[in-house]
Protein 1
Amino acid sequence: MSINNVGVLFRQMDERDELRQSIYRCKNKGELVKILDMHQMSFTIDEFEEAANVFHAKCQSQEEADWLFGKVNWFRFLYYSLAN
């Protein structure tokens, strides 16, 4: 379930330094996809955007929305700054 995978990534980015560091070392989108696959967190960018919308609709406070958009914007920046 790709929506769940996005949620897992967001939670684990706060909890797992080694995952975060390996993602930061990616030189292209292919490496990023491999790392996500290795950790059973596969999703496409379209699935990511869908998940972001679903999670946003479920936010019950400004704090939850701020946390979510911090993660969403972080991933968008990372993804779109990587070479194909």
Protein 2
Amino acid sequence: MKMLAVAMGLIILASFGCNRANTKGSNEPQVEVAYQLIDDGQYSEAIDLFWTLLQHEDTPTIRIGLASAYAARAGILVQSYWDLILPLIKPQPILRNAKVDALKKDWKLLILKFPSHVQNILIQNEEKIFKSYEDLENFKTRFETIPLLTRIDQVGDVNMARSIIKDVAYRGTHLYRALLSLVLIRYEADQSLTQFHQIMSALDRNKSCSTQIKYWITNLENLSFLISDLIFDLKISYPSKVAEIEPFEKEFKNYSNTTNGLSNLLHSNLCN
């Protein structure tokens, strides 16, 4: 019986047209040991061994194994989420959200606490604010089947996994990167919501919100970068499904343009 981690590596390579014989190296027995360490839950040990192997020989099998070890250490077991990617990018109905409704209901009372020039800015941009908040809440709901990272070391491991296989030019590795990007997109969307609430809280208490909005802008920039990477990897992974991917691309570009403009406007006018 094949080891689970080895089997997943073969799926990534073979199911997308790559000949495993072309990816083998002279250290194949040690590679098998490293994959076994992943199956045994010894992720840090597997990472150390894969790095040692990579220094002597750079093959797709070693890079995929190393990326898999980092992802597994972050709690991302690829085989559990492999079939989730395409359903997540299909157009989704926009549902009413109680939190968005509550923000709209309390909005007029909230803005009364600010000086008149601030009130004017908020009133002029209230629809953008509502839309940005609604989009973030919808993203959170949309991606709830994707695991949520809760620690910064997990984020670092997933980013490392994406980086390691970035230049492995097989469709399977691009699909793997797409999945890892989705994991980070959920994390950044969740962080963006947290920062949004902190911004509203800082404004509500008449405190400086500069730090919160700077964090928010960083989260939004990370989201835009990850989404661009996700779309690029999906188009390579599924060349026959580009038409299905393009509406997803348009949806997120519209969101990114609206929200980035809003965050910069708030920072320039409300956080001096």
Protein 3
Amino acid sequence: MIVYELMSKGHIVRLPDQAVLGDIAVENPVVALLMPYNRILVGVAYKGAYEMWLCGKNGDPSGWKEVFLYDGIPFRIDTDGFSASVSTDITSELRSQLIGRLPPPGSHRETMSVLEDFYGDQPDFMSQPQWEDEEVFLSRLGDLGNLRLVYWGIRKALVLGDYSMVGRIKVWVRRGLNTFGDESVIPKMWVSVGDLPGNKGIEELEALLFKPEQLRRMNLEKSGSVVFRGDSGYLVRFEGQRPFGEVSVSVWMYFSFPIWEEMKDRRGLRPQEIVILSWGFLDALEAVREMERYRLPFSVEEPIDVK
């Protein structure tokens, strides 16, 4: 068990793993955070495979309740006159410690079934008998190039039941699998519900030399895909599906000059295709970052950093 203590200045210190938690109503804790006034936050492996967090008071077995931790969001508890806050860095650290002891979610068999469809023109590549063994396959994944991204992207999409994501990754695999070999050409993406990206997105676009009035002019265009050539690269606004009823959802994607010209001029792809396959690639990148936090047979080559 991994035990931390929340200090008065808001940081945490790690205690010896043999630290005694006292009388808590939680079986087999994996990660624990000791807080003031005998409060404890505990992470457990629910049914051996699922992340679960419980918070309660030492010696009060009836007062424990389930809580939820998210990366990038601070955790705050207010109960019985007691309040405590845990910063985003700490919530991410706690989650990483618990998730690193759980198997990755999803089904290896179902993921491989989808991949067989993706790589149907390479039957010898996908039909290796040893790949039916999940641990053998995962231990080799770091040596398999883009298959590493495709595998985790599809596995995560199936866990979420997000078949739009499956479709985007399939377009990337079929139309632009080897496009993004250099980190400098990775596109950047923002999603807006309504008119423009939020304040953070606009700030990032301004840093790329796009002015708010240029974004507003793009937004007035009624075309499904609007392309604007800026001083640092191309910006595309793509009006996607409407998952929230009649509220429009727009995808804004930035491409450096070389990668846009490679896909548009040399490969002859339409702007909509470029956006969808790039979105699929970014889906897969994010999936690698999330899924490889879980317990694997042993580490793959290097973590992929998603900016």
